[in-house]
Design brief:
alpha/beta, 5-stranded mixed sheet, 5-stranded parallel sheet, 17 helices, binds NADPH dihydro-nicotinamide-adenine-dinucleotide phosphate
Length: 446
Amino acid sequence: MASYAEKVLAQVKANNPGEPEFHQAVTEVLESLKVVVDNDPVYEQTGLLERLVEPERVLMFRVPWVDDEGRVRINKGYRVQFNSAIGPYKGGLRFHPSVNLSVMKFLGFEQIFKNSLTGLAIGGAKGGSNFDPKGKSDGEVMRFCQSFMTEMFRHIGADTDIPAGDIGVGSREIGFLMGQYKRIRNEYVGVLTGKGLSYGGSLVRKEATGYGLVYLSEEALNSRGDSMRGKTVAVSGSGNVAIYTIEKARELGAKVVTASDSGGWIYDANGIDLDVLKRIKEEERGRISDYAERVKGAVYHPAGDGSVWDVKCHVAFPCATQNELDESAAKTLVANGVILVGEGANMPTTQAGTDVFLANSVIFLPGKAANAGGVATSVLEMAQIDTRLFWSFEKVDRKLQAIVKHIFTNIDDAARRYGMPGNYVAGSNIAGFEKVADAMLAEGIV
Ligand code: NDP
């Protein structure tokens, strides 16, 4: 007979057809939770899993805007308010052509557990649009953001739902969104995070996801008497998460030899020159191929010509997007002697890829835990705007490190309690679930 978790998984697949990313995220979580929910009837009696996998609210809306040629353009807008059991909805906004309901729901679902793992009082949500900011003028991006917020403002609020950035939504987009929110609501509140420093942002927020990933990896390595020092590291992506992952890995004594974007990837045997990479990506909004033109010895491969995972490394940090590291890439990494894989992106490893790492005793840090430093620092940003105080870089960084330590202890402990020491996929799903489940049970059938 199918177990409770298996029955709910079958229902999710039947009730949400054509949503493969959402199915993948729910499958991974429910597989881990079997050991918890199948041994205590209270979960089934209260329909807890059925409620957990159904978003509390899904908003879909039209985003009309006018391009520089005067043509009317229409994009789809989304906000999935997934679970508010432990606090107001919180999660990023993604602007990328691949955005659809399945991607929004997978990201919102993952966010529930990630936010819970931080130990902070925030629920899970995600939103965005299939709008592509790449190649658009600043004026076009501004008009799009203003139109997006003109609908979204009525669904969010400092105590209701606090969006942030994600792929395609950086400080420029957050600035335009905040400007429009303030204009419509006539109130200056911390309704968005990732803001610029001149209007309520926090130091370290920009760096937080990448730094948090490396801090957690260092914790995991330290627990085995090892460290990042002297390690060769492969990173994918060259956006916000990738850049600050590279920065912190270098600070801790590692050498990062790869980066990528959707056009291709680079290998730099001397270690990535971060000043050049930041100039290309943060200032010029250029392509990764520009890097190889400027840095002697760096080699550029267009997309399709191998991948960053072909490079021999001790540590791999996928920091671009979902399902970018598959079974075959995982096998190559294992054959090349990888010892730790930390997910900077959300669900960048396929289920089969994850299985390869777990079967080969690679330290595998799933995105829910590994990239939670970003959302945790968003909460530190909210605390500052609520009190009108501005904390030093060192103070925010110290708090981020303390939160990451808490996350490691939490996932390590949960994995041990259920007889799977070192399995941080199970540890993260279980530890993230426990707090949310307690709150849902306490709050009754809602
Ligand atoms: P950015 O937009 O700053 O950078 C994304 C990077 O990934 C770019 O180099 C981009 O290349 C590449 N990329 C995106 N989509 C694809 C694709 N389909 N194929 C190949 N390359 C792709 O985003 P972030 O750095 O903020 O986000 C990266 C990942 O980290 C995402 O999974 C996000 O959900 C996750 N994350 C981000 C957090 C944050 O604080 N920003 C917090 C937690 C998780 P190109 O420019 O060519 O598109």
